[in-house]
Design brief:
- The chain is α/β, with parallel strands linked by helices and about 500 residues long.
- It has 2 domains: about 210 residues, YjeF N-terminal domain (Rossmann fold), CATH 3.40.50.10260; about 270 residues, Ribokinase (UDP-N-acetylmuramoyl-L-alanine:D-glutamate ligase, 3-Layer(aba) Sandwich), CATH 3.40.1190.
- Helix content is about 40%, strand content about 15%.
- It has 21 helices and 17 strands.
- Strands 8-17-16-15-14-13-12-9-10-11 form a 10-stranded mixed beta sheet, with helices on both faces. Strands 3-2-1-4-5-6-7 form a 7-stranded parallel beta sheet, with helices on both faces.
- α3 packs parallel to α4 and α18 packs across α19.
- The longest helix has 19 residues.
- The two termini are about 35 Å apart.
Length: about 500
């Protein structure tokens, strides 16, 4: 973002260029407006740091003072050492500036955190840490806290917290969201995140070749499947789901039904003979075929009707799942490897990676990720984005690292962070539904990264509609309502 700001500042005005000082004015004005709205009465305390965020704070202080509000400004650092835009904005503020001290926030109706922004690279200690703790304590007693760009103490590029950090009611993200706004635990400290347009030219942002995105229809809507009147069911894509043994077919049945609900034209469960009747008794729209040996699955997948396949949900860990996974990988169908299909290869992950194609999708939760990528397990706990990217590149396939802040990563470095999942999705079978959603979109011709991202977002949207108390069976049934909402928004296709 800093590079984009500097690039925009260097552009001619007729091309959208704007000085960084003008961007700072807009950022500070937005902070002042937020304080006026959220805390219309009472003193406003502003803690300014020595960098760009501090300059935003001085602009906000000037605007609030001009509006007749009582403003207290505390500066962490030496005013004489401020440089550039920050020094100019400090000079334009005519009010008193005191050394940053927790007492400045006493009795404040609103506190604006402008201490540290996207440039922070180490945990806060000593005096800054005490300021953070004081702000959080005042918030607990009723002060409304606004963070400038990101809460001080958080790191812009990830969700990890290595020291104390501000807990805000709202965060004004300048120009664009940063990963910390979407990744836990930092995300939990941001409160409501509002993106403020500070007129960084689009060309300046695109010149940075961004590879990290917030997941949503804007990312994949352009390749979302269109429904045509002249299609028959297999032109809409057939999905194969390999079922587990008798009394363990529920996960596969969830995946198969979900593939249909997301738009695949047909879904077939492939089950062992003693499990087939169990599948048939619980499935109506989903077809059931028996397979006694992997060769039978290979012949079925070779018939040409199957465009995507799911292997792993409820399949069991062991030789049978490994053979069936190899069969799926050898077919022409795009593959989703989930659950037991991942754990089965825990001791020979390189064999799994050798089977994968770039459009195949792996969907591990953190535990399964640790089994397949044991050297990345610790990294995944602190840097989900980096771990997912590394894993996708190593596997040579799309990686969906599931969680409340699911990350979808491609081998080419692209990554999307999902932010629409409600907590109610933490329920048995929800991951099986997600596998079915992704496979259904793959079967309809979406590329792997986009299909995975869309499946994750639709999964979250279904969870929002089903609401608290949902069980996994409710998620595919919510899909028609999600599609109606998308059509009303003009996203996700015309039909």
């Amino acid at each position: 973002m800093r590079a984009a700001e500097l690039a925009a500042a260097a552009m001619p005005a007729e091309d959208g260029g704007l000085p960084t000082a003008a961007m700072m004015e807009m950022a500070g004005a937005a902070l002042a407006a937020a304080a006026m709205e959220k805390a219309p009465q009472g003193p406003v305390a502003i803690f300014c740091g020595p960098g760009g965020n501090g300059g935003d704070g001085f602009v906000a202080a000037r605007g609030l003072r001009q509006a007749g509000r009582e403003v207290r400004v505390g500066l962490f650092g030496d005013r004489e050492k401020l440089i550039g835009d920050q020094a100019m904005m400090a000079g334009l503020f005519a009010g008193e500036v005191a050394p940053a001290d927790p007492g400045i926030a006493d009795g404040a109706a609103c506190i604006i955190d402008c201490l540290f922004g996207a440039g922070l690279s180490r945990p806060l200690e000593a005096a800054p840490a005490r300021l953070v703790e004081a702000v959080n304590e005042r918030r607990g007693r009723g002060a409304f806290v606004i963070a400038a760009d990101l809460p001080s103490g958080a790191f812009a590029d990830g969700g990890a917290l290595e020291g104390p950090a501000i807990s805000a009611d709202i965060t004004l993200a300048f120009g664009a969201k940063k990963p910390c706004h979407l990744l836990y635990p930092a995300r939990a400290l941001c409160g409501e995140v509002i993106v403020i347009d500070v007129r960084i030219a689009d060309a300046a942002i695109l010149a940075q070749r961004p590879q990290t995105f917030e997941n949503g229809p804007a990312l994949w809507g352009g390749v979302f499947p269109q429904v045509r009147f002249d299609q028959h069911k297999y032109q809409r894509g057939g999905v194969a789901v390999v079922a587990g043994p008798r009394l363990a077919t529920g996960a596969a049945r969830l995946a198969a039904r979900s593939a249909l609900r997301v738009g695949a034209g047909a879904a077939t469960l492939y089950a062992e003979p003693d499990a087939a009747s169990e599948c048939a008794a619980q499935s109506t729209a989903v077809m059931v075929r028996t397979i006694a040996e992997p060769d039978e699955l290979a012949r079925a997948l070779g018939e040409g009707k199957t465009k995507a396949a799911v292997i792993g949900p409820g399949g069991g860990v062991g030789e049978r799942t490994e053979k069936l996974a190899r069969t799926v990988a050898a077919s022409a169908a795009a593959a989703v490897f989930d659950a037991d299909a991942l754990t089965t290869f825990a001791d020979n992950a390189d064999d799994l990676f050798g089977l994968l194609r770039v459009g195949d999708v792996l969907t591990p939760h953190l535990g399964e990720f640790a089994r397949v990528f044991p050297d990345l397990a610790e990294t995944a706990s602190s840097d989900r984005l980096g771990a997912a990217r590394t894993a996708a590149a190593r596997a040579g396939a799309i990686l969906v690292l599931k969680g409340p802040d699911t990350v979808i990563a491609a081998p080419d470095g692209r990554a999307a962070i999902n932010a629409n999942a409600p907590p109610h999705l933490a329920t048995a079978g929800a991951g099986d539904v997600l596998a079915g959603f992704i496979a259904g979109l793959l079967a309809q011709g979406m590329p792997g990264f986009e299909a995975a991202a869309a499946g994750v977002w639709l999964h979250g949207a279904c969870g929002q509609i089903a609401g608290r108390g949902l069980i996994a069976e409710d998620l595919p049934e919510a899909m028609p309502a999600v599609y109606r909402a998308l059509a009303g928004d003009g996203a996700g296709g015309k039909n």
